Amino acid sequence: MAQIHELSEILSDQIAAGEVVERPASVVKELVENAVDAGSDRIDILLEEAGLKSIRVIDNGQGINSDEVQIAFRRHATSKISSREDLFKVATLGFRGEALPSIASIADVVLTTSTGSGVGQKVHYRGGDLVDQNETSIRQGTDVLVTDLFFNTPARLKYLKSVQTELSKITDIVNRIALSYPDISFSLNHDGRELLRTTGRGDLLQVISNIYGVQNARKMEHIQGQNVDFEVEGYISLPELTRASRNYISVLLNGRYIKNYAISKAIISGYGSKLMVGRYPMAVINIKMDPLLVDVNVHPTKQEVRISQEPSLTNLISKSIYDQLAQENLIPDAIQNL
Ligand code: ADP
Ligand code: MG
């Protein structure tokens, strides 16, 4: 038997990358989440060949201090939490300090950043190695360019699907993040074509219209409700507007897009018998709750979370939808100016 030894940092980063970076859409998700956490109000995403050739995310957020740029690429290095208590009330999308080192270990990454004072920094990593770092002048914000994704992990490269499939995974995640942050102006550009642009004016219905089209947005009703633990607010489609899958339901918890079967089911059950069998509504539901009552540290991608008092939440959601749809024939359509 060989002797027990610690793995090199590069190798352990590559292992962690296996969990965090499954495909180009995971890179886009992590970079855009970092841009959101940096307080940006404008985020531009540029792709070539569904990210297989390149992924670039440009933000106007707070930037990274010159002397911290290399630290940001170390594993478990984060500015977002520092104590055990913080872990129980995470208020940012990131906190595990894994994305940058993971991505840099399996791709070519050039990150340019400036905090707006002094000169900016440009740093280049490839396969986990620092290639070089220079001073550069850019306006405040961060610009990350990822190319050659999975160049040193052939199994992952092989597992990737067609450009069309990878692109649809990317648009899906970008749409959900754009729905979560109507105050941020997002743009998504693929091979020179603009796929999405939101204004950042803070109107959720407008973002729904940008993503799903104005005709669909006109058939959405506003809902809201609250109880001691939860506040819910958002838009649901009228029973006449349905889809063949649940993919048009977005559940956003404290600004994070999550996948939760019980909540999707609660949304559907709020329609009672108004939906045809095999048909699903469109919905965007924002849930606000005390971060202490939700554990986001369940999975590296953070899309699965554990919510305490979940039945109280699912009841609130079903009831808010049921009540709104019961009123629907009595009040005029609230949505006119789209
Ligand atoms: P996490 O997001 O979990 O903290 P990351 O590896 O994604 O871990 O990022 C490490 C750190 O680098 C972040 O905590 C943040 O301080 C900094 N950082 C990354 N991306 C950006 C960005 N776009 N703007 C400002 N700071 C960033
Ligand atoms: Mg992050």
UniProtKB/TrEMBL annotation:
<keyword id="KW-0227">DNA damage</keyword>
<dbReference type="GO" id="GO:0005524">
    <property type="term" value="F:ATP binding"/>
</dbReference>
<keyword id="KW-0234">DNA repair</keyword>
<feature type="domain" description="DNA mismatch repair protein S5">
    <location>
        <begin position="208"/>
        <end position="326"/>
    </location>
</feature>
<dbReference type="GO" id="GO:0030983">
    <property type="term" value="F:mismatched DNA binding"/>
</dbReference>
<comment type="similarity">
    <text>Belongs to the DNA mismatch repair MutL/HexB family.</text>
</comment>
<protein>
    <recommendedName>
        <fullName>DNA mismatch repair protein MutL</fullName>
    </recommendedName>
</protein>
<dbReference type="GO" id="GO:0032300">
    <property type="term" value="C:mismatch repair complex"/>
</dbReference>
<dbReference type="GO" id="GO:0140664">
    <property type="term" value="F:ATP-dependent DNA damage sensor activity"/>
</dbReference>
<comment type="function">
    <text>This protein is involved in the repair of mismatches in DNA. It is required for dam-dependent methyl-directed DNA mismatch repair. May act as a 'molecular matchmaker', a protein that promotes the formation of a stable complex between two or more DNA-binding proteins in an ATP-dependent manner without itself being part of a final effector complex.</text>
</comment>
<dbReference type="GO" id="GO:0006298">
    <property type="term" value="P:mismatch repair"/>
</dbReference>
<dbReference type="GO" id="GO:0016887">
    <property type="term" value="F:ATP hydrolysis activity"/>
</dbReference>
